[in-house]
């Protein structure tokens, strides 16, 4: 019987309105006494926290495409492979030189430019303002990313957006120092070289004393491919891209907007004891 359930958030547990259905929430909560449930997300831990609290989880969470593991109970980073500040400085200068919009995920906040705002961050900020204060993520517009480097302990991830992302991704400096995963047609997420969801999940599962065969991993986006290929059973959502479905062993029969399908699948994969 599978012992670990690794779940992506956006496009998987969350529907297109960024909500968790009552049925899916209840199903995941019912698994907790006998299944180790871990969220594996591209999100910053502060942006995942409202959903973590809603699911009433107690396990750590793998964030920013495998960059770090965060323990909410102790409000601490357990382990990480953050971007070095010298490399971050060069990254920022090259991105801005290519007229790319930029988002920087730092220790406890997500930062984006006041002069070149990013639409999806504007939407994320509006969502954050609806979250109760104690769970609300810190999302801020800044005047200078370079200046912000001196005010943080860690840089978790960059997101770039614009027409030149493909050119940027082929630059030797970028390919030699960063792991990039496309999250939209004109958007790429960059973490430190070697960080992927699959690598982080494998390390996490080994520390639990389990193996890949014990794991069910479910996701929808390209950044989920590594963990679907690692898991004993990789499941792609119906709304996933063709590449994600090809990497999985199973595809759901409906999208993330039909939560009943995922809830029923989880009940079948993890029958109650």
Give the overall silhouette. Answer: globular
- Sheet with most strands: 6 strands, mixed
The CATH architecture of the largest domain: 3-Layer(aba) Sandwich
Structural class: alpha/beta
The domain count comes to 2
- Unreliable spans are none
Head-to-tail CA distance between termini? 11 Å
SS field, number of helical segments: 11
> Helicity range of the residues?
25-40%
Give the ordered list of helices and strands: EHEHEEEHEEHEHEHHEEHEHEHEH
> What's the CATH H-level superfamily name of the largest domain?
HAD superfamily/HAD-like
Briefly note the CATH topology name of the largest domain: Rossmann fold
Report the average pLDDT across residues: 96
CATH class of the largest domain: Alpha Beta
Strand order of the largest sheet: 8-7-6-9-11-10
| Beta-strand residue percentage | 15-25%
Number of DSSP-assigned strands? 14
Description:
- This protein is of the alpha/beta class and 273 residues long.
- The chain has 2 domains: 4-80 and 196-269, 3-Layer(aba) Sandwich (Rossmann fold), CATH 3.40.50.1000; 85-192, Hypothetical Protein, Haloacid Dehalogenase-like Hydrolase, Chain: A, domain 2 (2-Layer Sandwich).
- The protein is 35% helix and 24% strand.
- The chain has helices spanning 22-31, 45-55, 85-97, 119-128, 145-149, 165-169, 172-177, 197-208, 225-230, 242-247, 259-269, and strands at residues 4-7, 36-39, 61-63, 68-71, 76-80, 101-106, 109-113, 139-142, 155-161, 178-184, 187-192, 215-219, 233-236, 250-251.
- The strands form 3 sheets. It has a 6-stranded mixed β-sheet, sandwiched between helices.
- Strand 13 (233-236), helix 10 (242-247) and strand 14 (250-251) form a beta-alpha-beta unit.
- Helix 1 runs parallel beside helix 11.
- The longest helix is centred in the middle third of the chain and has 13 residues, at 85-97.
- The protein is globular, with a radius of gyration of 18 Å.
- The model has no long low-confidence stretch (mean pLDDT 96).
């Amino acid at each position: 019987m599978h012992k670990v359930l690794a779940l992506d958030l956006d496009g998987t547990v969350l529907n297109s309105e960024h909500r968790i259905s009552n049925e899916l929430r209840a199903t995941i909560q019912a698994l907790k006494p006998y299944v180790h449930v871990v969220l594996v997300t591209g999100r910053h831990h502060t942006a995942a926290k409202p959903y973590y609290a809603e699911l009433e989880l107690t396990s750590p969470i793998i964030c920013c495409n495998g960059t770090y593991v965060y323990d909410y109970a102790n409000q601490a980073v357990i382990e990480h492979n953050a971007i070095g500040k010298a490399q971050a400085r060069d990254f920022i200068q090259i991105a801005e030189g290519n007229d790319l919009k930029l988002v920087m995920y730092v220790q406890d906040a997500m930062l984006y430019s006041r002069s070149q705002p990013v639409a999806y961050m504007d939407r994320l900020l509006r969502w954050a303002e609806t979250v109760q204060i104690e769970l609300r993520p810190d999302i801020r517009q800044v005047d200078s990313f370079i200046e912000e480097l001196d005010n943080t302990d860690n840089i978790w991830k960059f997101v770039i957006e614009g027409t030149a992302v493909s050119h940027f991704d082929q630059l030797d400096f970028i390919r030699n120092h960063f792991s990039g995963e496309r999250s939209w047609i004109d958007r790429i997420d960059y973490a430190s070289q070697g960080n992927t969801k699959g690598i982080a999940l494998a390390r996490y599962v080994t520390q639990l004393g389990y193996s890949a065969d014990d794991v069910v991993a479910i996701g929808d986006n390209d950044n989920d491919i590594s963990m679907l290929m690692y898991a004993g059973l990789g499941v792609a959502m119906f709304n996933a891209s063709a590449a994600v479905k090809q990497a999985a062993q199973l595809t759901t029969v409906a999208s993330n907007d039909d939560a009943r399908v995922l809830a029923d699948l989880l009940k079948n994969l993890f029958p109650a004891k």
